[in-house]
Amino acid sequence: MITTDRRSRRDSLQGAGQFKTTYGADQAVFPVAQDRVVVAAAVVAAFVVPPPVASDYWLQAVLIPFLVYALAAIGLNLLTGYAGQLSLGTGGFMAVGAYSAFKLATAFPHLNILVVFVLSGLVAAAVGLFFGIPSLRIKGFYLAVATLASQFFLVWLFNKVAWFTNYASSGTITAPDRTLFGVVITGPNSTAAARYLLALGLVAVFAVIAKNLVRGRVGRAWMAIRDRDIAAEIIGVRPLRTKLLAFGISSFYCGVAGAGLVFLYLGSAETLAFDISISFLVLFMVIIGGLGSILGSFLGAAFIVLMPIVLANAPHAIGLRLPVALQKQIELMVFGGLIIFFLIVEPRGLARLWQITKEKLRLWPFPH
Amino acid sequence: MSALLEIREASKAFGGVQAVTRVSLETQKGEILSVIGPNGAGKTTILNMISGFYHPDTGRIVLEGRDITDLAPSRIAELGIARTFQNIALFRGMTVLDNLLLGRHVHMKTGVLSAFAYWGLAQKEEVAHRKRVEEIIDFLRIQDLRRRPTGSLAYGLQKRVELGRALALDPKILLLDEPMGGCNHEEKEDMARFVLDVNEEWGVTVILIEHDMGVVMGISDRVAVLDMGQKIAEGTPDEVRANPRVIKAYLGETKIDASGGSGG
How many helices (H) and strands (E) in chain A? Predict the structure, then answer.
């Protein structure tokens, strides 16, 4: 197959001058060497730099929520962006993860906290599978309404049944102190840096797994169902199995993110933390970041988490003194305006914008 | 020799409309069988029954002695029947390469757990199937389109990619629903050449629905003619061409009848 190989090499020559000589290399996540280096450096930097440098405020109020929401956004993106199943049940599935983690951690105090997170994800996956069953019959907006039912039912359930909160009179669940490698990593006595590192570790591992899933057989089957379900069936993709798999795995991610929301970010929470607005928030992250893009999940989460903080500090930074109430209003208006702006500039999301920028930079300064 | 695929007295009605009435049809291994007939004769309904989208009201469909009448489309694909659609059903957001790799779906085994750690089984499998897909890309001469989203391709090329996706299944039987419909003369010639090559070199049995009589008569081993949901003739192209019932269905009777041939 010498001829094919040569053609494939020529084909992958996209101006960068890097030749591929094997199909394996051609199908790598980051086919361009500079990309690989930059991404690897960014990941290492994310682990090494913030803990000693960033203030507790930055870790606690910015970076940790960004990571937790990024994980939830990846989860929803697998389901909605890749498999094309619109879901408004994210908050509910996150609640399942959070309450499972709480029950598991308090019932089995010696259970490793990582195991608790994974098990909570599995419980959420099982619940997600169940609520994914209607997707076989209904599509699009109608499916969204059906998943809305799961959102309301799950939150109602955790509110009503006191067993889930260990009969706490306040109705809240609180993350207990747990250690990992001898360091307190969750609960009131943990440092923000420790929680940040755990969140980052979880997100890094699960993002890689998600990428591996979507670039292979499983992800292609999801996209086939999304793009043309009839054609997917005709080439042997089983709709039932494929859709339920998407619901299960997506809910797993949301479940782990929900556990992270309580154990790594909020510390304690009641069902209000998982209400319908969370489902919408994560959906917005996915849409703004880019449907069908793992990178987009990060960009969308960053936009939604960071933009309000930037906007809150912007007037002060440019020396503008505004009444607090007025500033709050302006914040919301600008935030909404920015969302619309980005959706008009690039409906396929920030990830697509980033891709276009990269393609332009690759040829810069000689665009022809 | 027993037939590869057998349709036994299949009937299908939609509401009050009898789309197909007691049609029997056999395909021998290695042949090109064309199904022709005026619009609304029930040709596509027959393909849909073979590929499992419709289940016949009465009658059976048998593949290599195995009853596949009530199987779901995905199961029928796993048994080696691939098809293309009259109005192209590609995954428009995905690249040509991904469309063809999806055609390999039934031959791939990677589950969720082995996909978690891509490096290993999953990667080995991806590369192995990529090789097969590249052979098909070479065969169809679409090397320059690998990374193009299929939605952005010209109509004739989309038809070609859809054929490629069906071929990626390594099918025993290839069902082609008007693969040349809407194509210009050159595209038709190319497509006819591909169908012949697939049949001769790879031994794939082809069931073809096509309106272009030149192509049908030129490449078919046998031709079956449907009219009003019933099979009215079957035989070699020459036999069919000479059959008075076929002439009547296509051209109307000798007294001038305007409602006749719409299909030619």
Answer: 17, 4
pLDDT at A1 over 70: no
Q: Is residue A322, in this structure, part of any structural domain at all?
A: no
Number of H helices, E strands in chain B: 10, 10
- B147 interaction partners in chain A (CB closer than 8 Å): 11
Number of domains within chain A: 1
Q: What distance in Å separates residue B91's CA from the closest CA in chain A?
A: 5
Position A368 scores a pLDDT of 57
Separation of alpha carbons B206 and B30, rounded Å: 8
Q: How far is CA B31 from CA B35, B153, B193, B202, in A?
A: 13, 31, 15, 12
Tokens of B71: 């199987």
Mutate to test the interface with A, among B51, B114, B134 (most CBs of A within 10 A): B134
- Cβ-in-10-Å burial (0-12, 13-18, 19+) of B26 comes to middle
A29 is a domain residue: no
Residue of A nearest to B171 (CA): A235
Q: What is the pLDDT of residues B123-148, one digit of tens each?
A: 888 888 999 999 999 999 999 999 99
Residue of A nearest to B110 (CA): A217
- Residue B75, judged by CB atoms within 10 A of its CB (0-12, 13-18, 19+), counts as middle
SS3 at position B166: helix
Q: Which of A:234-253 have CB within 8 Å of B?
A: 234-239, 245, 249
pLDDT at B257 over 70: no
Contact call for A235 and B103, based on CB within 8 A: yes
Reported confidence tier of residue B263, pLDDT bands at 50, 70, 90 = very low
Q: CB distance A223–B98 less than 8 Å?
A: yes
Buried b (16+ CB within 10 A) or exposed e, B188-200: bebbbebbeebbe
pLDDT of residue A205: 94
Residue A10: inside a domain: no
Greater confidence (B253 vs A91) lies with A91
Q: Indicate if the pLDDT at residue B260 is higher than 70.
A: no
- Residue A222: give the domain boundaries: 47-273
Chain B CB contacts of A30 below 8 Å: none
Quick check: A339 pLDDT over 50?
Answer: yes
Yes or no, beta carbons of A11 and B123 under 8 Å apart = no
Q: Do B94 and A223 touch (CB under 8 A)?
A: yes
Q: Does the residue A283 lie in any domain? A: no
Q: At A7, is the pLDDT very low, low, confident or very high (cuts 50, 70, 90)?
A: very low
pLDDT in tens, A13-63: 444 466 677 777 777 777 677 778 888 888 998 898 888 888 888 898 899
| A6 CB within 8 Å of a chain B CB | no
Residue A323: exposed, middle, or buried by beta-carbon count in 10 A (0-12, 13-18, 19+)?
exposed
